Amino acid sequence: MNKDELKYFLEQVKNEEISVDSAVEKLKELPFTEIGDYAKIDNHRALRNGYPEVIFCQGKSLEHINGIISKMLELGENNILATRASKEVYESVCKITDHAIYYDLARIIVIKRKEIIKTKKNILIMTGGTADIPVAEEAAVTAEVLGNSVERLYDVGVAGIHRLLARLDVICSANVIICVAGMEGALGSVVGGLVDVPVIAVPTSVGYGASFNGVAALLSMLNSCASGTSVVNIDNGFGAGYTASMINKLNGDD
Amino acid sequence: MNKDELKYFLEQVKNEEISVDSAVEKLKELPFTEIGDYAKIDNHRALRNGYPEVIFCQGKSLEHINGIISKMLELGENNILATRASKEVYESVCKITDHAIYYDLARIIVIKRKEIIKTKKNILIMTGGTADIPVAEEAAVTAEVLGNSVERLYDVGVAGIHRLLARLDVICSANVIICVAGMEGALGSVVGGLVDVPVIAVPTSVGYGASFNGVAALLSMLNSCASGTSVVNIDNGFGAGYTASMINKLNGDD
Amino acid sequence: MNKDELKYFLEQVKNEEISVDSAVEKLKELPFTEIGDYAKIDNHRALRNGYPEVIFCQGKSLEHINGIISKMLELGENNILATRASKEVYESVCKITDHAIYYDLARIIVIKRKEIIKTKKNILIMTGGTADIPVAEEAAVTAEVLGNSVERLYDVGVAGIHRLLARLDVICSANVIICVAGMEGALGSVVGGLVDVPVIAVPTSVGYGASFNGVAALLSMLNSCASGTSVVNIDNGFGAGYTASMINKLNGDD
Amino acid sequence: MNKDELKYFLEQVKNEEISVDSAVEKLKELPFTEIGDYAKIDNHRALRNGYPEVIFCQGKSLEHINGIISKMLELGENNILATRASKEVYESVCKITDHAIYYDLARIIVIKRKEIIKTKKNILIMTGGTADIPVAEEAAVTAEVLGNSVERLYDVGVAGIHRLLARLDVICSANVIICVAGMEGALGSVVGGLVDVPVIAVPTSVGYGASFNGVAALLSMLNSCASGTSVVNIDNGFGAGYTASMINKLNGDD
Amino acid sequence: MNKDELKYFLEQVKNEEISVDSAVEKLKELPFTEIGDYAKIDNHRALRNGYPEVIFCQGKSLEHINGIISKMLELGENNILATRASKEVYESVCKITDHAIYYDLARIIVIKRKEIIKTKKNILIMTGGTADIPVAEEAAVTAEVLGNSVERLYDVGVAGIHRLLARLDVICSANVIICVAGMEGALGSVVGGLVDVPVIAVPTSVGYGASFNGVAALLSMLNSCASGTSVVNIDNGFGAGYTASMINKLNGDD
Amino acid sequence: MNKDELKYFLEQVKNEEISVDSAVEKLKELPFTEIGDYAKIDNHRALRNGYPEVIFCQGKSLEHINGIISKMLELGENNILATRASKEVYESVCKITDHAIYYDLARIIVIKRKEIIKTKKNILIMTGGTADIPVAEEAAVTAEVLGNSVERLYDVGVAGIHRLLARLDVICSANVIICVAGMEGALGSVVGGLVDVPVIAVPTSVGYGASFNGVAALLSMLNSCASGTSVVNIDNGFGAGYTASMINKLNGDD
Amino acid sequence: MNKDELKYFLEQVKNEEISVDSAVEKLKELPFTEIGDYAKIDNHRALRNGYPEVIFCQGKSLEHINGIISKMLELGENNILATRASKEVYESVCKITDHAIYYDLARIIVIKRKEIIKTKKNILIMTGGTADIPVAEEAAVTAEVLGNSVERLYDVGVAGIHRLLARLDVICSANVIICVAGMEGALGSVVGGLVDVPVIAVPTSVGYGASFNGVAALLSMLNSCASGTSVVNIDNGFGAGYTASMINKLNGDD
Amino acid sequence: MNKDELKYFLEQVKNEEISVDSAVEKLKELPFTEIGDYAKIDNHRALRNGYPEVIFCQGKSLEHINGIISKMLELGENNILATRASKEVYESVCKITDHAIYYDLARIIVIKRKEIIKTKKNILIMTGGTADIPVAEEAAVTAEVLGNSVERLYDVGVAGIHRLLARLDVICSANVIICVAGMEGALGSVVGGLVDVPVIAVPTSVGYGASFNGVAALLSMLNSCASGTSVVNIDNGFGAGYTASMINKLNGDD
């Protein structure tokens, strides 16, 4: 409720178009829905923007997940994105809807209820190695469900720089780039130095020994000398896809 | 040199418009300039985009800094941005140019040679506390020199959430937001949950004890539950300003 | 034995109401009970205050747990609280008593032998997300068995600040607040800034990547800018519930 | 503004006792004061409770500190507590007020404008060693200015347990205890096991080598086996004093 | 393509021996092969040097591994080395070739298609204990497949220095030495001080407690006082074997 | 071979009592035995002192363990101590000897072939809690097999200091003390301050959250304020028992 | 007060040889002395054993140090050992006594008031390098003042193992050994494997980069494969000397 | 002394060409020189190979440094290399020799007494930035004094990959490469993937925030995907230069 709406609302109170009691309730009422006593769906963004509803499944019981998704199905008509969903979660969700599609590499369930219109400009998603692909796919599927055109360029790590340079055309035509890499995590720096668009770096827990489950890649990316690069949490493909989508759709490309 | 330029270039070779020897040189020649044997200026972005030349002063000797800036002054007509510049660096730079302006809170020297045209949309820069202001100013001055309209909202940390909520109008009208915070670094999460635009979180080394010079804030920001948030290095105001500028000017707002 | 009791005791020795030998034994005797050679029950608090006996089950064998609980059952009439108890422990305990109740989310067994009288004032237990609920329940059940009125407010993380603000009435009416959160752990700071009562922050190991099993939340909470906040160990719901109870019952509310 | 006040306020709007425009302003107006563009004083707690105004000086310039204190002096009549204040800060503050008192061990400036009424019950502040005293004094002065009776028991570290046991009478008569210790930080555990009142443990950066500037003591305290113990940041004497005061004054002792 | 080749190539363009279009393709074409969209084989080194093709199996699916190896088998005649290969991977690979040999301690599959000619000079591989042998064997098999004579000297840790000194003859006759050790990782320092040849130290994750899965050994090796020692990642037997081979074959010993 | 023996030996060479060739062999021959190419038994201490042979089983294959023990059985008549031995290892060892005894809490196999004569003076082994007992038993069994009288005092953690003080008589009569504790690891400091004999502190990985698998206890013990305390690796019961035995038997008590 | 003394004491109460009031005082009185409110001297060990009084100067003000030493001088006749004493502290102490001797490498002040009788058996103190000598000297002077014969063997690091082996005679004749080393800290392991006496390892903060101020050496020493080795805090020469003295004098060598 | 020399030596004893006493001495005598009681010069390598004597100055007093260098000057005729030498050290050394040359960027003093013959093949030393040059120069001067031809290629960090690719000719003609980089430390990976010669990666402490004084670069380098890369300690230019020299001169290039 912005200033103008607030003014209009208070005038309605003044004019007795709205009773004081319902005004009190209205001011207390906020845009979310309680489910049992264990969760609160945030309708905020979805209602306004046609964004999909999102549920992060890891650490939640099957009952809670199904409870939340049932409520989402009941409440609106937006698409639903369930991330960090195991096969077992998918099978459970299938019991309450016929429309769930499972992206197993990405560990994402999509329940599509609305057509998705894609942006003209691309988000490019790159990986350093083959083992980084699951995190990259989490980013890719997220970005696609959010309405972005996505291009993939996998296994182009910096230790074989010619593989990356061979695809400079693809790299230079992207509007936003997501660099997914484990081990030494240098992909973001090299790519960030080649392009003039925002780069989102995603460290992955791929590696062994002194990779410390992604810490080496994380630190490397945070210390990137390439301007225009920012970083999300280790293995956070969803966050990268979501952020890239926000950026890609800014200033009118949707 | 893209595919078409390469084709055209090779046709010139074929038609003997360019000699083989100068073609060899041309293909070897890349867009940077060597200064002594200690630095290479990267003309790449500046030439193409009217971006300012940037020099990171920390860890460089006064001689090296002046050598690099002299070359920049000689080579082009872009603005020059010298970051992490102490008062002493500024005084040294004043010996080679009359046009240097020093932003002492931001520790930035700007040598302005071209008019800066500002974007219509704002980058909002927020801080959790008063002590985070120097890093915020580094981001602010960087973004301004890069041609962005910048709004400042300082000392609105989450431990006094009403101070932040009182300015929701400013927060909700920004196109990109930079959240600068030390200590528990929760500003990014709260802001990220309130808006639908990209948020860049900058942890600062402000704090003591278990803040570990910004590590607490960094981890907090990387683990933000708010989608659309990405992170840069501790105290990296420049990186945040640069990334925010890239995002703000994407898709045509310049 | 305080100074007055000591004086009285020594006078009894002097007056030969107590023999020297039994006085020696008395001074050596301390209020705990040995069980086999593997454990010592501390009767101290329980005897004096009607506090429940507490046993931390994690890392103890079923035999040891049953041995200790048997002794507790035999020795006194207080309630018994067994924390970090798996389903398997519960089943084992059922063999020696019919009165065990299992709170599976909280992983607590309660053997109730005395009526529990509740305080008039509330301990409020809040969580940032759904996955933090088990730790919150450990705190809640602990506080309840210790005789406190407990209110729950779950899934009100700071990335959706309106969900939290919508319940300001509940938050502001609590006497002590426990904030349970993983990820960026900022709940404690925001709540601590809203209220004037003690806040106990419990970091949880919920999260992934750079959450480092609760370290990010722990550091965030230790660095809270909100005065009046203190912190317990990662996932230490019991400790939070126990401390909150001590505080809630101080100065006469029992 | 609680529910009833809100209702009353809206009825005033309805009855035209308040104009819509001033109602809009009122709803937007929140209880803090802006000083220049660098700080916001939070009048919230102070106004309501007679709490002192608090300013954390570390990392702030002398100008900013004096600016903030001037505003505090102008705005209200509460006492003012300036923590982490160097001698230099004190001398600067003396230029704007004659009433500043400097506690040099505690590094605190107090500007007393109101009589402080002490609680009947004590906060006991203990240290492991002599070098922990500055942090303990920060806690002690804070608690005293907040209106608490404070008892000090210094240099009673666990490696000489008889020194501590010799003062059991003092320890057992406290209402809240603050344990300040560096090195192995075990004081909190031992004391926590002896008493039935809340213990706030403050790790200090005292020590060398593997004390890692207080990390060893911090971890030790977080892992305390003694129930009823919670922890604040390394060297955070102010936080401990403030929290202890909140607890000590709970349920009516003021 | 070096300078001379480039000159020659451009002359061919000029002389129309090569068409502009195929020249464009040629300049864009780089020496790797794409497999599906998940991997790129790097033919670079193998083609030039008769090096074996290498595939790191950990974190790759059986399908991907077989897909990559099939392509390798099809493309060239070099030997193939598959590292971090489980028994299960081996069995899967057996379905596509009869020539796979499995070194189970080393977890390496070798598909030998060319005779391996051994160097005259030795690489010596030493371990501190018996539990370090798997990593040592990874190094040993790698070095052997790359064409080196390899000598093994196992279980000669520094806590029994006489065992090591008893074999000084073997140690002093090596051309390159690989020291594989967990726990305190001191083998590299002692050996490095005894010889005048390059020593490659490999920390292993062998140990417990404060070995932190190899961190203790890694730090110990990085801090070695013995000049001429360098270090690879924890458990990185392959990297050590590969580096040692490069060094051993330098300046003409092949 | 000491100086005198060397002199005598060289005189034998001179007098041709020993041939040059066998002298060469003798000087090269060192007191250990090779088993296959995977292990070397160190006969050194055992031969000289009647110490038991020791084998650390963790990380070794059953074949290697049996190979080493067979050789030990064949070579000498000393007792054999196999530490970190699982039940499975014990069952495997039973196939090659009838004399193996398994201490399951301590995870130790003892093959007793010689009578063990106990010291007059005691090693006292204390634990903070019940869960620390397995590590304590590893120390206890080790010390006993090495010929020491051992006393146990378990579950006397510092959070219930009276339990510990109640047994001051036992504590003060020990010759060497081993303190085994996880969590905050303060036992060593308290005990070290009470006695005048060497204290060996063993941190255990018992705990959760910020205990970081024993790091909290380790740091606490390293920072102990009590003089006379030294520390071994996390969970290293064997090392503590062995060191305590060395100390206990020093200066003639055997 | 042991059991017999307690009995005797109680009989005195009974027989009215001691009044109840003075008995109460006696039981409360413990063997330490308060100095102002900032320190408590522990007379315990000194009174009983002729041990020197010890004061750790680091982090204490000159006034406090002089206050404590004055009291020590007044109370007894034992020698006084002031560790971590700067030159400035020494000069300050000279104002209150003429008998202070300053060991500048060791940073120790000794005030000798009693003859020191040396043990027959040696403590050997070794260092890895020249830069470790100050810590070694702290251990050496401590051990000497405590009445031990001390031998020094410096700069015998493992990277030049022959330097160490050349002095096997000295090493093998020691009763207790202290190994002081920074960098990779391997000295303890090598020495521990050579001897049958207790080894105390002292990591030093000597080194740079990944030595992390002694952490590398500390971890290396904790992970030593040599039985009989225990560790003290980084740079804790005093602790090593004190522990070694306790061990050296055990079982009657004094 | 190898087997043949030992045989010959024993025959001399047998033939009484050497007396038993001097034989005893000979066997005890090892190739190093003691200086006072604080240092031992290791003549080992220098005597045999014409290697320079090396002294690491950091952490040594001026007296010790001059003492050691004086002895070196007296003992042999090799060149002397003093690393980590401040200007102050240089001035002190000038008092005992006229031949000292100071390389201030490298912080190295060279005392040249013998002609240095350079290898035909090059060691190439690269840096990521200008601030890494001091460490690179330490490596360069070390390698040159050890007799290697050295090429420098500075400021070619991966964030401007074209700067590096422009010099592929230089990179590909090196025999050994040293990559010196701070921040994200990715230079080693990119270069390692481009060449077939050994790469030694040197992390530097250049950077800020999450570079953690070189830890980010160190981890990045240890996790390099490029085979043939090994790593030395943070800022260890000397170690890199020494190792590179060993490798460069292997198999006969000297």
How would a textbook summarize the main sheet of chain A?
5 strands, parallel
Derived structural class of chain A? alpha/beta
User: What is the CA–CA distance across the termini of chain A?
Assistant: 25 Å
Mean pLDDT of chain A: 85
CATH topology of the largest domain in chain A: Rossmann fold
This entry's quaternary arrangement is homooctamer
Number of strands of chain A: 11
Coarse morphology of chain A: globular
Of all chain pairs, the largest interface belongs to: A-B, 38 and 38 residues
Tell me the radius of gyration of chain A. 21 Å
Fraction of residues in β-strands of chain A: 15-25%
Q: How many helical stretches of chain A? A: 11
Order of helices and strands of chain A: HHEEHEHEHEEEHEHHEHEHEH
Q: Classify the helix fraction of chain A into a percent range.
A: 25-40%
Point out poorly predicted stretches of chain A.
Answer: 44-48
| Major β-sheet strand ordering of chain A | 8-7-9-10-11
CATH architecture of the largest domain in chain A: 3-Layer(aba) Sandwich
Number of domains of chain A: 2
The CATH class label of the largest domain in chain A is: Alpha Beta
